[in-house]
Amino acid sequence: MPDTFNDTPWVRRDSLVVAHRLRTYYTIKPGLFAKPRFVKAVDDISLSVDRGMTLAVVGESGSGKTTLGRTLIRLLEPISGEIYFDGTDITHMKEDELKKVGFRRRVGMVFQDPYSSLNPFHSIHFILEEPLMVQGVPREEREERVYRALEEVKLTPPEDFINKYPHMLSGGQRQRVSIARAIITNPDFIVADEPVSMLDASIRVEILTILKDIQQRHKMAFMYITHDISTAKYFSDYILIMYAGQFAEYGPFRDVVKNPLHPYAQSLIEAIPDPDPSNRLRERKVAPGEPPNLANPPPGCRFHPRCPFAMDICKRQEPPVIEARPGVYVKCWLYAK
Amino acid sequence: MIAMALLEVKNARLYYTTTKGIVKAVDSVSFELNEGETLAVVGESGSGKSTLAKLLVRVWERNVSLVDGEIYLEGKEVLHIPESEFRREVRWKKIAMVPQASMNALNPVIKIGDQMIEPLLLQGTGKEEALKMAMDALEAVGLPRDIVNRYPHQLSGGMKQRVIIAMSIMAHPRIVILDEPTSALDVITQANIMNLLKKLKWEFKLSYIFITHDLALASELADAVAIMYAGKIVEIGGAEDIYQNPSHPYTQGLISSVPTLRVDKSLSFIPGEVPSLINPPPGCRFHPRCPYYRDRDYLKGLCDAKEPPGVKVEGKSSRTHLVYCWLYG
After folding, report:
1. Domain tally for chain A?
2. Which domain holds residue A156?
3. Chain A window 183-242: which residues touch B at a Cβ cutoff of 8 Å?
4. pLDDT tens for residues B156-166?
5. For labelling, which of A176, A308, A337, B270 has a CA lying 20 to 30 Å from the CA of A13?
6. CATH number of A182's domain
7. How far apart are CA B178 and CA B167, in angstroms?
8. pTM of the full predicted structure?
């Protein structure tokens, strides 16, 4: 039996990345003398990601998926819960401590927008070399690693790209530079936040293939944040579906996508069209309405105002997370015994 | 007698002048739209699909240097009639548009109702009647009538998009051009809007021109599909023919690059990048990326020199299936 937390049995303690009951809130002050309020962007999320495994975190805008990713690599500090990285508790570590324990070197991030995530005044060479300089890697080794990273993302021959600036590259090429920057320190854990959502269809697959190859070659732990389940399908092992900052459903990817249990997950999957000319003849059965404001979420289950199966208890009490099928966990009263 | 198409576009061209040169955004595009039909125009960024939409409603930027060709609406040429006549008789009344990202272009300090009726007032409709038309349209898109008294910030993204769709149908046009109507919306909201567009199509007997980069989404509405690449239509035909028997190498590549959730298939991609529209490749604009051109010697000197003609391919649907490719010429 793997060692898990008693209250979150889907989280394995021995994984590389472990988050237990994580909450990240933003503070908003509606007025000068008004009491500050919280936007509960991540509200009680638990997960673990192993080496060589990809977890897809799926949700709509405002579901907290990006905040979750940024909290896990400690660009944000949670207000409660714990984060363990390779057994070390990094939940509240200060920046210099994170550097000292090697955390910053061992994680990488790929951002959504390749047009704003690269400094336009820096050459590709400098963009890639900078993380290594910060770590004090000697010059010759830096040079070699920059070339190797460019080769890994198939920007070949590297000489053609190394002296260019971001504006000289296409969107797909820029995103490859972002990936090269994320992997240049040989990290163990990568968070990719919507890495292909701004790219054209014909380029998307190429970037996904590169990400998948790198993840498998280096046996990295990988977190793929997206609103688009169909791109996640091509390399995800597990899926966590979030709604309004909270856990909705977690389990093996194919299992969940084939037979989703949470009414929100069912709607989300039903909403995605596959290219099929018969689609025009049918109506999609999806939940009406839109996600709530996280500064003032509905009581009970946050999905209840849109849920076709809402019961009385859903309006009053937050549902527990239940193992509804072996390995599939759902936060929904429909599955309470 | 052959039934007349509702809209017929012949050799339409629109070029922009920029400091870097002339951008041939739409270059000799011809197609027909039939009564009650939805034509999806699918292409990647820079394919000219949004410019085509602007051309059809005659709303374009100041740096346009050439507009050419013919557009027949119900048999009457409308591209070269005076703007005053087009505004009075055609725009909104016959052919309306949902511009890309327009839900974010609603004026934040003007009530929804006042914004909606502005084009109607310009056409000479009385204020009371215009307001009634706006409220009827709001009801048709599933919003309460009293939303006319609200301001944009009081509405969610999905509701704002419904307001824009209501605006497009309130003067009862025959054709609505939808330019990426769900681009900033979440997937479930997108599905709800698609359901609404299907309903409106039947209720008001609309014909749509649905502009999108997303082949999967296009299949939600399309009776026919036109694939655009670098300012030109490369293939056009009934939806069944395009999805199940794609004939142009670009269409084939595009379809095999679309991830599918329910069916397992391996994905492939088209190497290379979309060409610049200032200096497009000679001959077929797709030839530098085309796998057939690369592998077959007899195509050398043909694809890279001469523009391919439209060739009819056998198809299942009643619509003519045309492909612009030397493989079939």
Report:
1. 1
2. 49-64+96-236+248-273+283-335
3. 200-206, 208-209, 227-231, 233-234
4. 889 999 999 99
5. A337
6. 3.40.50.300
7. 12
8. 0.92
